[in-house]
Design brief:
The complex is a heterodimer of chains A (121) and B (110). Chain A is built from no helices and eleven strands. With 121 residues, chain A is mainly beta. Chain B has 110 residues and is mainly beta. Chain B is globular and about 40 Å long. The chains are: A mainly beta (121), B mainly beta (110). Chains A and B meet through strand 5, strand 9 and strand 10 of A and strand 4, strand 5, strand 9 and strand 10 of B.
Chain lengths: 121, 110
């Protein structure tokens, strides 16, 4: 059974960088037609797609966040990561990593449990 | 900028049928947007219900169905149960690698 687990600091200071890693177990990140994505959810609000990355390193990001987001993948560790620079309180929320099936399907089908990141001084 | 729209809230009686929709502020939703639907209860990760417009994910009861109705994607729950009370999100693929979630619908079963 595929499992994803987010890890990283739960508290980030304003203007600093948010860094999260997602560890994938029970399956390989090196799989054709599979992307690995990040989705966030501010408190009491809806889901927002942040971006998705392929094992080759090819990535797509939400245009509204693109200037601040870097996605990366480490196939040797079966992990992928998110960096979000210059954070503000508006970046507070639960961050999920998920498997993103691309191509002619386009779905997130396996989700991590989510990790709460609070931006505060 | 095109926004994905959903009803903010909806209510249904136990055993009743409800249809939630997913539209665009500009244009019509078609199968080319590969609509998918997710169910989320408080404190939990989203659960995938429907993908590629009308394909149920493994383990999803057949009382959940997806379709295109007019110019929107739709999620229909037939024979609603108490534990269907959740938030429901649609997601559309906009092309060029971009995915967008709708704002979500809070479904009450009462």
């Amino acid at each position: 059974q595929l499992q994803l687990q987010e890890s990283g600091p739960g508290l980030v200071r304003p203007s600093e960088t948010l860094s999260l890693t997602c560890t994938v177990s029970g399956g390989s990140i090196n799989t054709d037609n599979l992307y690995w994505g990040w989705i966030r959810q501010p408190p009491g609000q809806g889901l927002e797609w942040i971006g998705s990355i392929y094992y080759s390193g090819s990535a797509y990001c939400n245009p509204s966040l693109k200037s601040r987001v870097t996605l990366s993948v480490d196939t040797s560790k079966n992990q992928f990561s998110l960096r979000l620079i210059s954070v503000t309180a508006a970046d507070t929320g639960v961050y999920y990593c998920a498997r993103h099936v691309g191509g002619g399907i386009q779905k997130f089908d396996y989700w991590g449990q989510g990790t709460l990141v609070t931006v505060s001084s | 900028q095109t926004v994905v729209t959903q009803e903010p809230s909806f209510s249904v009686s136990p055993g009743g049928t409800v249809t939630l929709t997913c539209g665009l502020t500009s244009g019509s939703v078609s199968t080319s947007y590969y609509p998918s639907w997710y169910q989320q209860t408080p404190g939990q990760s989203p659960r995938t219900l429907i993908y590629s417009t009308n394909t149920r994910s493994s383990g999803v009861p057949d009382r959940f169905s997806g379709s295109i109705l007019g110019n929107k994607a739709a999620l229909t729950i037939t024979g609603a149960q108490a534990d269907d009370e959740s938030d429901y999100y649609c997601m559309l693929y906009m092309g060029s690698g971009i995915s967008v979630f709708g704002g979500g619908t809070k479904l009450t079963v009462l």
